[in-house]
Structures are given as structure tokens and as C-alpha cells.
Design brief:
This protein is an alpha/beta fold and 258 residues long. Helices cover 50% and strands 15% of the residues. It contains nine helices and nine strands. Helix 1 links the parallel strand 1 (4-8) and strand 2 (28-33). The longest helix is centred in the middle third of the chain and has 29 residues, at 101-129. The model is unreliable at 190-201 (pLDDT under 50).
Amino acid sequence: MQETVLITGASSGIGLELARCFAADKASLVLVARNAAALEQLAAELRSAHGIKVDVLIADLAKPESPGKILSELKGRGITVDVLVNNAGFGLHGTFAGLPLKEQLEIVTVNISALVELTGLLLPGMIRQKRGGILNVGSVAGFLPGPHMAVYYASKAFVLSFSEALYEELRGTGVHITNLCPGPTESNFSQVARSHRTRKAQAKKMSAAKVARIGHADFRRAAHMSIPGAGNKILSFAPRLLPRAAVRRFVGHYNSLD
């Protein structure tokens, strides 16, 4: 049976590379993002390379009404989604008190509220069909407190907890959920994130294509978690071994404003 995959934040970075991975599976795609030109370019590439059906849906998930509009558009086009990839997200770099509150609340809207609402709108249909799945793009940041990116790190902690809980709830339903937790990745995150500053420290970054390939493979084998790279696996485990104060200071230094 033909599989249809909806990917948010598909115009660049990990989302774009995940679209290429699912296209190689011959899945039909629904690409969602704000950048219409980038989506149309990607859609044309994937149609040509794989001979698949690709729909483009322009939406800004910072607007609370967007998930509902996406569902209405899907119904209008007669599209049933089998796999949801919640990839859209952004962060801001700076102190919580020093950053615009409105923009920090938009992080919550995109990274948490839209993810939860799209999951809530599309998951019941998957359960009825007894097939499908959800790939949430979280972050290794979800395992850590994040001084100078407090709301972003906290939003990814929510994604981590939410994904693990749903994984357990979905046992035996034919539907599974995977939380992809990359570390620093080569992408246009800083531009998309509308960051106000650049980090002082720079960790070695994995390519978005490699992150996507690993996340896609782990999703296909129904893993509950995907953490690309040995260093990121160690980083995700470190908070269990080290004092919380030490972890806070380390992350605060990495995200230094100096």
C-alpha cells in the first residue's frame, strides 16, 4: 500500500534530508514549511528523481491556527497521512530575561504546541488503520538544562518525554514513534532559528544528511530513540552521572554570550 509522509520544516536542513530519505522509499510526500520557493524546488527534485507524488503545503507553525488549517487542506486534497515527521523547530540564543518574550513564546508554539496538535490530529487515523508512525525531531539538548537557550532546551525536553510516553501507549497498535535526538548539525539552524547571537564555543557538527539517514533507519526499525553519533550518545547519558550543577555550568559555558 502506498505510504504518505508529511514532513514539517521540510525546506532545509534535517527536514529536507528526511524528505529525500522517505522519497527514496517511494513514499508520497506532503512537504510543509514557510518557504514556498524552497519547497517547490525540493518537490520538483523528488518528483523527477523518484517518480513520486509530492504535495506542497505553505504554513507558518508559529501561528496557532496552522495545524488546523493543515488538516483542512489535507482533507480537501483527499490525503491520508500514514507517517508524520514533526521536524519544524527553532531556538533563540541569549538570556531568558534579555530575549523578546513574544519570540520565546513562539518557540513553545512551534516546538511544542504545533507538534502536539499535529500528533493529536493525525495519530487517531493511524491507530484506526493499525499502521503508520511518527518521527519527532528532538535534540540531545532535551537531556540537558540549557542556560542561554533555556526555552529551546526545555522544549526539546518536552519532546523527549512526550515521545517516550507515546511509544509506550502505542504498543500493540501497529503504530510506533521515534524521537530523533541529533547534536550540533550542519544546517541553517541559526538563520531559521532567528538567533540573536552566535555561540562562543563550536562543537564538531554532523551533516544534516547523515543525521537524517540515521534517524530514518532507526524509525524504519521502530526504535523509540535515535541519537546519531557516539559523542552525542555520551552527552545524553552524562547528566545521569554528573552533578546537575556541573552540567548546568558546562552547557552555560558552551552557550556563552561572550
